[in-house]
Amino acid sequence: MFRLIRARAKQLGGQDSNDQSEVDITPLLDVVFIMLIFFIVTASFVKESGIGLNKPSSSHAEAPDTPPIVVEISSNNVISIQRHEVAAAAIKATITRLRAESPNASVVVRLDPKATTAAMIAAVDSIRAANVEYPSIGLLKS
C-alpha cells in the first residue's frame, strides 16, 4: 500500500521519501562570519572610561593647619557636629558659624554603615547650602 502512495506522489511531482533533502548552510556561515568580524572590529575600539585623578606632586603630605569640621551620622540617623548633637534643620547654620570661625577648615561627613541614604543626602545638601563645595564623606568604623 505504501508503494502505491509513493508512486502516486512521484507522479504528481512530489519527492520520494527515500530522497535525502540537503540544507544549504552557506548563508548561515556568511552571517556568522560577518558577525564575528563586526564584533572583533568594534571590540578593539572600545575605550574604558575612567576618572582622572590629580595626584599630589610632593613626596610627603602636610597636615592641615586647621582641624576639619566633623559631621557624624549615627546608625539611628542622629546628626552631630563636632560631637554635639544637632537637628537636621540646624546643620546649615552650625556649619556657617564654624566656617566663619575657621574659614580654611574642611568639612568631613562620617556616617555609620547602617545610617540611611536619606539622612546622608539631607546632611550633605545642608552642608553645600552653607557654601561648602565638596565635603569629604567617609564611614565610621564599626
Notes on the protein architecture:
With 142 residues, this protein is of the alpha/beta class. It has a domain at 69-139: Nucleotidyltransferase, domain 5. Helices cover 38% and strands 14% of the residues. It has four helices and five strands, in the order H-H-E-E-E-H-E-H-E. It has helices spanning 2-11, 26-45, 91-101, 117-129; strands at residues 69-73, 79-81, 84-86, 107-111, 136-139. Strands 3-2-1-4-5 form a five-stranded mixed beta sheet, covered by helices on one side. A hairpin with a 2-residue loop joins strand 2 and strand 3. The radius of gyration is 36 Å and the shape is elongated. The relative contact order is 0.11. The model has no long low-confidence stretch (mean pLDDT 81).
Please give the number of β-strands: 5
Label the structural class. Answer: alpha/beta
Note the quaternary state here. single chain
In whole angstroms, how far apart are the ends?
87 Å
